[in-house]
Amino acid sequence: MAQQYVAAIDQGTTSTRCIIFDHDGRIVSADQKEHLQIFPQPGWVEHDSAEIWERTQSVVRAALEKRDLTPADLAAVGVTNQRETTVVWNRHTGRAYHNAIVWQDLRTDQICHELARDGGMDRFRDRCGLPLATYFSGPKIAWMLEHVPGLRTAAENGDAIFGTFDTFLIWHLTGGIHVTDVTNASRTMLMNLRTLDWDDELLAAMNIPRAMLPTIRPSSEVYGIAGGVLEGVPVAGALGDQQAALMGQTCYSPGEAKNTYGTGCFMLLNTGTEIVASQNGLLTTLGYKLGDAPAVYALEGSIAIAGALVQWLRDNLGMITSSAEVEALARLVNDNGGVYFVPAFSGLFAPYWRSDARGVIVGLTRYVNRSHIARAALEATAWQTREVLDAMEHDSGVTLKTLKVDGGMIANELLMQFQSDALGVPVIRPQIAETTALGAAYAAGLATGVWPSLDALRQNWAVDRTWQPQLAAADRERQYALWKKAVTRTFDWA
């Protein structure tokens, strides 16, 4: 039968994947390629957008070829992406004016502090749901307009256009359609949460020309028809990666939450059609918008460094030769030996928002060996998640009874057990762990009639494994107090 599959392009921080799903949400084929991480100076992180577009075409082609498929077998394609990473390119040539500035990059710290002089770090929070922080796209655009020769003139003339990687890839796939979805737009600091349109006051404050910006569309809608490697396929879904995981985990009811363990770690709680303002360091963001239906909002706790810490042990310290080895190394000891590792490599995100923080390892004695450090590195992700969960429960009034998890790190069963221990609730891994790509496929399939409703998607979700807490409550709270003490040691460093 023709058009029985839906493809997802998952453009992440360290790699790009194409995954093809069947009607039951099962993976039919997949391909993945890493791309270069560029560090021009301390605190700066960049990507080559031309390399990412080349890798995108390569993984799409390979995923189709592995199963002898052609674009005619696909009903639709959805795109999901690393959010906030900022690309500015020429509308006529498709070439970028500068390397993409990655979400982890800290170069906009001064811009954020200057904007905060009038009204503080929460100056724009009531409009866009976000604190002033280096994380978001708006200050990155402002930096490029200030520092790339000729860019401001090109932007004001309409020649230079902005997008996060969803926009950049859709533009290239469709031959020039310049759109983003509400979830990615909500991460720029430039979109008004209520109107779901670019906000003139925010644009003026950052001196960003409206002509640069894409049209904001729903997350599930046919934006255009692809050419090239996906010739004739409707491009019909776009979601930032964490919102795509919310969709893939079928968290469609208010109070349902998921946590994604990737380069960073991101917990989202569905708050329905209600905009919930955070009093505890979380972000108010869009969950998704399906066609003409009302927008669904979410609270988010964002952690900058999770899987990236394991990569750092591998690449910078040479403690392991592959990320998968960290679990075996950590299992050689029964506990962390008193060591706590706070990976504030890019400052601290939720719930602190401290760009002055830097990473620390505390509690070192001569007893400690590399296994203790490996274990402390895994525990860092679990404790950071505990801090986010505490903030989420305070903001929402919802007490989480279970946590749905996804992302690359959930293959690490020691981490999953410790996560359950740190939270004191069951942790549930789904059968399809690639929920980010699945969510993008679901959005595209809903727009093209592959799936009739959210209820049909819920029926695809199934449990793979559940971890129950095993740590005594008193031990949990004692260790958590030590973790929070370690966090304070990261402050006021930069």
Quick gist of this model?
This protein is an alpha/beta fold. 33% of the residues lie in helices and 22% in strands.
Describe the structure.
The structure is a single chain. The N and C termini lie far apart (59 Å). 54% of the residues are buried. The chain has a 7-stranded mixed beta sheet with strand order 15-16-14-13-19-20-21. Helix 9 (241-248) packs across helix 14 and helix 10 runs antiparallel to helix 12 (370-396). 33% of the residues lie in helices and 22% in strands. The protein is of the alpha/beta class and 494 residues long.
List keywords for this structure.
single chain; 494 residues; alpha/beta; 7-stranded mixed beta sheet; 6-stranded mixed beta sheet; 33% helix; 22% strand
Strand order of the largest sheet: 15-16-14-13-19-20-21
Distance between the termini: 59 Å
For the secondary structure, the number of strands is: 21
Gyration radius over CA: 21 Å
Helix amount: 25-40%
* Tally of individual helices: 16
Q: What does the main sheet amount to?
A: 7 strands, mixed
Overall 3D shape:
globular
Proportion of residues in β-strands: 15-25%
Uncertain parts: none
Structural class: alpha/beta
Arithmetic mean pLDDT: 93
